[in-house]
Amino acid sequence: MSTANHATLSCAELSVRVPGRLxxxxxxxxxxxxxxxxxLGRNGCGxxxxxxxxxxxxxxxxxxxxxxxxxxxxxxxxxAALQLGLLPQASEDPFPGxxxxxxxxxxxxxxxxxxxxxxxxxxxxxxxxxxxxxxxFDERDVGTLSGGERQRVSIATMLTQEPRTLxxxxxxxxxxxxxxxxxxxxxxxxxxxxxxxxxxxxDAGLAARFADEALxxxxxxxxxxxxxxxxxxxxxxxELYGTAVRELRWPQGRTFVTA
Length: 259
Prior knowledge:
Blueprint: E1 9-18, E2 21-31, E3 36-40, H1 47-54, E4 62-67, E5 70-71, H2 77-83, E6 84-87, H3 99-103, H4 119-131, H5 147-161, E7 165-168, H6 177-192, E8 196-201, H7 204-210, E9 213-217, E10 223-227, H8 228-231, H9 234-241, E11 245-250, E12 253-258
Parallel strand pairs: 3-8, 3-9, 6-7, 7-8
Antiparallel strand pairs: 1-2, 1-4, 4-5, 9-10, 11-12
């Protein structure tokens, strides 16, 4: 997949606040094509708020979010949606209907005013249902699905949008271990095709295995960003979560466990 039309996402001196608290202070980073970046931190540290700010869904306290070298705020919603997709932590079914109808919502940025989805759009939607292990779910009523199945429908909807940059807020929540690893491997493959991926996680071991870079949010304005091999250490993870951890290594990877 070519990266020639990839509008790179970046931010400069970005601060994220909620009432009474500075969560992130003057964050600067660039999410390069071909990169998976994991966002880690305790509950309430600002992971969701930061992802929503980078997606243009909330205003920063200060600083600028850039997409393709120009301020994200200057893009129209449709223009931005063709480049940038956000999977929120919690989503509701938009309306009663089938799984295929729900996933086809991802095609809306590609359609003209009053234009209906065509055969190509349905093929894209079905292909992405297959990628998240929901083959033959087309006609299932969304209301009959389990929490994990609904989460995979949301992921398929985002993939059907075909954004070049994917922001995912705790995408492995509600997924069993098999589907957690399958999703993370899929995101890894999308990055290898030239897309950019940023996702929030709680498991530093999964970040170490599947991500190239990590952004650690300490919840008091401080942050640390860089290659996983440098950023994910016993000392940083222990400080991040407020509990001592040990690193375990084996030939194919590493993880962290409480000491």
